[in-house]
Design a protein that fits this description.
Blueprint lengths: L1 H48 L2
């Protein structure tokens, strides 16, 4: 019975890890896309409008 509880704990921990990873990765991707968009807008501003 002790092994069964251990395996149940491992399955629950794996499911929680997947959900946490999805949340963090989703937020990280949004942050990266936002940073890229800001960098492109700054480059356009300085190259075309500031010159």
């Amino acid at each position: 019975m002790e092994n069964f509880a251990y395996y149940v704990f491992l399955v629950i921990a794996a499911i929680v890890a997947v959900f946490v990873l999805k949340k963090v990765a989703g937020c990280l991707m949004k942050t990266i896309f936002l940073a890229v968009i800001v960098a492109v807008l700054l480059a356009i501003y300085f190259l075309y409008f500031k010159g």
